[in-house]
Amino acid sequence: MDKMKLKIPFEEIKTAVEQASYGHHYLIDRKNHQIVFINEIENDYEKKLAEVESDDFIDFELGVPDDDFLIMESFIYGIQEENFELAEKFHVVLEQKKPFKHFKELIGKHPELEEKWFKHKDKELTNETMNWLCINNIELEDESFMPKIEIRELNAKEVKLPEEFECFGPVECMNCKNNAGFKIRYFELSISNENMLIDKEIKRLMTEKYGIKDYGTIAGGDKEILTSSKCPKCDSSEIFEDF
Ligand SMILES: [Zn+2]
What we know:
By secondary structure, this protein is α+β, with helices and mostly antiparallel strands. The chain has helices at about 10-20, 45-50, 65-80, 85-95, 100-110, 110-135, 195-210, and strands spanning about 5, 25-30, 35-40, 55-60, 140, 150-155, 170-175, 185-190, 215-220, 225-230, 240. The strands form four sheets. The chain has a four-stranded antiparallel β-sheet with strand order 6-8-10-9. The chain has a three-stranded antiparallel β-sheet with strand order 3-2-4, with helices on both faces. The mean pLDDT is about 90. Zinc ion (ZN) binds near residues 173, 176, 233 and 234.
């Protein structure tokens, strides 16, 4: 689909992503730059739905309970490291009948987690919304929702890889099969790459600022690191990396 630029605030898109569900239709009206909501409890909803069946309208995918389930699961993984026993309690709750209700009750018993939970949910929803914009090739006129991304090249002394990546590096040039003398560059990301729009922006910055199109990502440290290797023989940057 063609790229389009809309004058709709990010928060409104985010609400539509969150609330679109069975019986609750949200659509983007491309011409008038607004969001249309059609509720199936209205008498004339079928007529309204027929009216928006054109290329001028983009449907929001209907949310399914599975989405919420995944958000709860990723939240539990987040608390696992700090409090294994508590995480186990949450795991048990998700396996019971009415997992949503029980999850909420358990959160209610741990007020210290409540804020963390809301933040987590909001972050997941933001990522989902940004992915949705990327997939539908939509740009928003007000881009203030986009976090500022800084990429900084590290010198050899600054590079601190997570332990499990200490032996990770270039092994073989995919172009000429050379396997020695690679030059590696490391870059540090100011924010983590957690959705498709951020990923796209990182790609753009790497190309624009450093002329690098091929790079790998090392996550697990304080900050995510990008690595790029070059073959000394043929100058290719398509290098196979391994431990
Ligand atoms: Zn080569």
